[in-house]
Amino acid sequence: MRYWLFKSEPNKWSWDQQVARGEAGEEWDGIRNYQARNNMREMALGDRGFFYHSNIGKEIVGIVEVCALSHPDSTIEDARWDCVDVKAVRPFAVPVTLAQIKAAPALAEISLIRQSRLSVAPITEEEWGLVCAMGETDPS
DNA sequence: GCCAACGTTGGC
DNA sequence: GCCAACGTTGGC
């Protein structure tokens, strides 16, 4: 299993909206960046991801799971753009803020900081475990 | 509101 | 294929 980071502006698509979709999940649509798209094409069913609120909150608020493999983005008529579906797994007991992540030496190389504009990015297993611990949240 | 980072576009 | 111009993202 691999780990990923999904970023969303909460005034466009929030964790609460993701939770409301339940087991059905939701397309992670609207991605118009090749690197982000390529990351989604590499995802497998059951892969886990952090759900990060950008701009407002600037914190990791929950864990999602990939529940549909990469497929054409239904919001655009353009074969270039694919996306996966994700469903909420559990919220973070304590959200982990960007400031906390920046302050953690072991997270200096995390994609959230190193490629701050990339909205879908890989996370290492070590980073996954650390951030979950910081959020007092079950990493499984 | 500003600005750094960086991806995209289009002229050459 | 290069590079300047421009647009977008996202933190501050």
Domain count: the total is 1
SSE order in H/E notation?
Answer: EHEHEEEHHEH
Major β-sheet annotation: 6 strands, mixed
Oligomeric state as shown = single chain
Mean pLDDT: 94
Short overview:
The protein has 140 residues and is of the alpha+beta class. The chain is 24% helix and 34% strand. The protein contains five helices and six strands.
Structural notes for this entry:
It contains 5 helices and 6 strands, in the order βαβαβββααβα. The protein is of the alpha+beta class and 140 residues long. The protein has a single domain (3-134), classed as ph1033 like domains (ph1033 like fold, Roll). The longest helix has 10 residues, at 125-134. The structure holds a DNA duplex (12 and 12 nucleotides).
Give the SSE layout.
Elements (H helix, E strand, L loop, with lengths): L2 E6 L6 H6 L5 E2 L6 H8 L6 E6 L5 E14 L9 E16 H6 L7 H4 L5 E4 L1 H10 L6
Parallel strand pairs: 1-3
Antiparallel strand pairs: 1-6, 2-5, 3-4, 4-5
The chain binds a DNA duplex (12 and 12 nucleotides) through loops.
